[in-house]
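ESCALATION

Customer reports they have been waiting on this structure for their group meeting. Please prioritize. Original submission:
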Amino acid sequence: MATGLYFAYGSNMDPVQMESRCPDARALGRAHLADWEVRIGVRGFATVVNTPGSLTWGVLWEVSPSDERSLDRYEGVAEGLYRREILTVQGHECAQAALIYIQEFDGDGVPRDGYLERVLDGARAFNLPADYRAELARLRDAE
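Update from on-call: job pushed to the front of the queue and completed.
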Protein backbone atom coordinates (compact mmCIF):
# COMPACT_ATOMS: atom_id res chain seq x y z
CA MET A 1 0.00 0.00 0.00
CA ALA A 2 1.41 3.40 -0.98
CA THR A 3 1.82 5.87 1.85
CA GLY A 4 2.27 9.58 2.15
CA LEU A 5 3.33 12.01 4.85
CA TYR A 6 0.91 14.19 6.79
CA PHE A 7 1.84 16.98 9.22
CA ALA A 8 -0.68 17.48 12.03
CA TYR A 9 -0.53 20.64 14.15
CA GLY A 10 -4.02 20.59 15.72
CA SER A 11 -6.18 17.89 17.25
CA ASN A 12 -4.84 15.26 14.83
CA MET A 13 -1.65 15.25 16.89
CA ASP A 14 -3.68 13.25 19.45
CA PRO A 15 -2.80 9.57 18.89
CA VAL A 16 -6.15 8.38 20.25
CA GLN A 17 -8.05 10.54 17.77
CA MET A 18 -5.80 9.51 14.88
CA GLU A 19 -6.19 5.82 15.70
CA SER A 20 -9.95 6.06 15.25
CA ARG A 21 -9.85 8.47 12.31
CA CYS A 22 -6.94 6.97 10.36
CA PRO A 23 -6.38 3.34 11.38
CA ASP A 24 -3.44 2.80 9.00
CA ALA A 25 -1.55 5.90 10.21
CA ARG A 26 1.83 5.51 11.86
CA ALA A 27 3.39 8.32 13.87
CA LEU A 28 6.92 9.15 12.77
CA GLY A 29 7.47 11.67 15.57
CA ARG A 30 7.53 15.37 16.10
CA ALA A 31 8.40 17.85 13.37
CA HIS A 32 8.18 21.59 12.83
CA LEU A 33 7.08 23.97 10.12
CA ALA A 34 9.16 27.13 9.77
CA ASP A 35 7.61 30.53 9.02
CA TRP A 36 4.07 29.46 9.94
CA GLU A 37 2.16 30.30 13.13
CA VAL A 38 -0.69 28.26 14.61
CA ARG A 39 -3.87 30.26 15.31
CA ILE A 40 -7.47 29.50 16.23
CA GLY A 41 -9.85 30.80 13.59
CA VAL A 42 -13.36 32.12 14.12
CA ARG A 43 -14.84 28.63 13.63
CA GLY A 44 -12.92 27.49 16.73
CA PHE A 45 -10.33 25.22 15.09
CA ALA A 46 -6.59 25.54 14.50
CA THR A 47 -5.01 26.69 11.29
CA VAL A 48 -1.61 28.02 10.34
CA VAL A 49 -0.83 31.48 9.02
CA ASN A 50 2.31 32.29 7.05
CA THR A 51 4.36 34.36 9.50
CA PRO A 52 8.10 34.76 8.81
CA GLY A 53 10.19 33.86 11.85
CA SER A 54 7.46 31.77 13.50
CA LEU A 55 7.60 28.04 14.15
CA THR A 56 4.72 25.57 14.34
CA TRP A 57 5.43 22.22 15.99
CA GLY A 58 3.40 19.14 15.22
CA VAL A 59 3.45 15.45 14.43
CA LEU A 60 4.53 13.81 11.20
CA TRP A 61 2.35 10.82 10.28
CA GLU A 62 2.73 8.21 7.58
CA VAL A 63 -0.77 7.77 6.12
CA SER A 64 -2.40 5.48 3.57
CA PRO A 65 -4.59 6.68 0.69
CA SER A 66 -7.70 5.67 2.69
CA ASP A 67 -6.40 7.68 5.67
CA GLU A 68 -6.00 10.71 3.38
CA ARG A 69 -9.59 10.32 2.15
CA SER A 70 -10.73 10.17 5.78
CA LEU A 71 -8.73 13.31 6.61
CA ASP A 72 -10.17 15.11 3.56
CA ARG A 73 -13.70 14.32 4.80
CA TYR A 74 -12.94 15.30 8.39
CA GLU A 75 -11.25 18.56 7.38
CA GLY A 76 -14.13 19.47 5.07
CA VAL A 77 -12.01 19.85 1.93
CA ALA A 78 -15.00 19.35 -0.41
CA GLU A 79 -16.93 22.03 1.50
CA GLY A 80 -14.00 24.47 1.34
CA LEU A 81 -13.39 24.50 5.11
CA TYR A 82 -9.72 23.51 4.74
CA ARG A 83 -7.49 23.20 1.70
CA ARG A 84 -4.75 20.66 1.10
CA GLU A 85 -1.19 21.88 0.63
CA ILE A 86 2.21 20.24 0.47
CA LEU A 87 4.78 22.06 2.59
CA THR A 88 8.27 21.21 3.78
CA VAL A 89 8.53 20.23 7.44
CA GLN A 90 11.66 19.50 9.43
CA GLY A 91 11.55 16.11 11.10
CA HIS A 92 14.06 14.47 13.40
CA GLU A 93 16.44 13.50 10.62
CA CYS A 94 15.63 15.62 7.60
CA ALA A 95 13.28 18.02 5.85
CA GLN A 96 10.40 16.35 4.03
CA ALA A 97 7.40 17.38 1.96
CA ALA A 98 4.16 16.61 3.78
CA LEU A 99 0.44 17.10 3.34
CA ILE A 100 -1.02 19.79 5.58
CA TYR A 101 -4.54 21.19 5.89
CA ILE A 102 -4.94 24.97 6.05
CA GLN A 103 -8.10 26.92 6.83
CA GLU A 104 -8.43 30.41 5.37
CA PHE A 105 -7.69 32.62 8.37
CA ASP A 106 -10.47 35.13 8.93
CA GLY A 107 -9.57 36.40 12.38
CA ASP A 108 -8.82 35.03 15.83
CA GLY A 109 -11.46 32.94 17.54
CA VAL A 110 -11.94 30.88 20.66
CA PRO A 111 -11.33 27.11 20.60
CA ARG A 112 -14.46 24.96 20.57
CA ASP A 113 -15.23 23.09 23.79
CA GLY A 114 -12.81 20.19 24.22
CA TYR A 115 -10.80 21.01 21.10
CA LEU A 116 -7.75 22.61 22.67
CA GLU A 117 -7.57 19.77 25.20
CA ARG A 118 -7.11 17.26 22.32
CA VAL A 119 -4.45 19.52 20.79
CA LEU A 120 -2.60 19.66 24.11
CA ASP A 121 -2.99 15.89 24.62
CA GLY A 122 -1.20 15.34 21.32
CA ALA A 123 1.47 17.92 22.13
CA ARG A 124 2.19 16.11 25.41
CA ALA A 125 2.09 12.65 23.83
CA PHE A 126 4.84 13.63 21.39
CA ASN A 127 6.76 15.73 23.91
CA LEU A 128 6.62 18.95 21.92
CA PRO A 129 8.81 21.65 23.48
CA ALA A 130 7.44 22.96 26.80
CA ASP A 131 7.48 26.59 25.67
CA TYR A 132 5.48 25.65 22.57
CA ARG A 133 2.94 23.70 24.67
CA ALA A 134 2.55 26.83 26.82
CA GLU A 135 2.01 28.86 23.63
CA LEU A 136 -0.72 26.42 22.57
CA ALA A 137 -2.40 26.68 25.97
CA ARG A 138 -2.56 30.47 25.55
CA LEU A 139 -4.67 30.00 22.39
CA ARG A 140 -7.67 29.59 24.66
CA ASP A 141 -7.42 33.33 25.42
CA ALA A 142 -6.79 34.51 21.85
CA GLU A 143 -9.93 36.66 21.56
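Sent to customer with the following note: The domain at 4-136 is CATH 3.10.490.10 (Hypothetical upf0131 protein ytfp).
Escalation resolved.
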